[in-house]
Amino acid sequence: MIRNDEEPVGHNALDRVTWALRRAELAVQTLKEQRLRPLGLAAAHYTLLISVHADPGLTGAELARRLNVTPQAVASLVARLENRGQVERREHPRHRHVQELHLTDAGREVLRAADKVIADIELQITGGLGPKETAQLRGLLDRVADTVRED
Which domains are present in the chain? Predict the structure, then answer.
């Protein structure tokens, strides 16, 4: 049991860089969800579509590893997008039990519209920062990623 005079976390826990990163991530994610909703998409759908666009033929397992989600989560997203006619599964040329993911024409069309939404969010963010701060932020975020990966 925690008494009122005990601190369950450090006194500056909400001032940490990790918390600032999380707040920014949540704000951007919320905006993506709001702006993609009129297209009938969630941010996860956009992420899957652009990943398959960038690397046609990905398998569900490869996609799950790249997106850091479970294979079951990918399977559910793929099924939803497949039912909408936006992605299709094709048999792997050498491994008959493996299915590759590919965008359909409808998938490319919705991805174009969704990417415009994401590009507009990017412009909103970079416009608020300006070119110099945008470059600084990108550099700092790259350094954060590199620093975390080293451990």
Answer: 31-115 (1.10.10.10)
Long-range CB contacts for residues 87-92, cutoff 8 Å, separation at least 24 = 87/48, 87/49, 87/52, 90/57, 92/59
How do residues 26-72 score in pLDDT, each as one tens digit?
999 999 999 999 999 999 999 999 999 999 999 999 999 998 899 99
pLDDT digits (tens, 9 = 90+) for 84-98: 999 999 987 777 777
Average of per-residue pLDDT across 7-24:
86
Higher pLDDT, 126 or 7: 126
> Is residue 48 within 8 Å of 111, Cβ to Cβ?
no
**What is the number of alpha carbons within 13 Å of residue 96 lying toward its C-beta?**
0
Spatial CA neighbour of 103 closest among 27, 24, 48: 48
- Asked if residue 59 lies in contact with residue 100, where contact means CB atoms within 8 angstroms, the answer is yes
* 117 burial level (CB within 10 Å; 0-12, 13-18, 19+): buried
The DSSP secondary-structure symbol of 87 reads E
Residues 49 and 134: their CA atoms lie apart, in Å, by 26
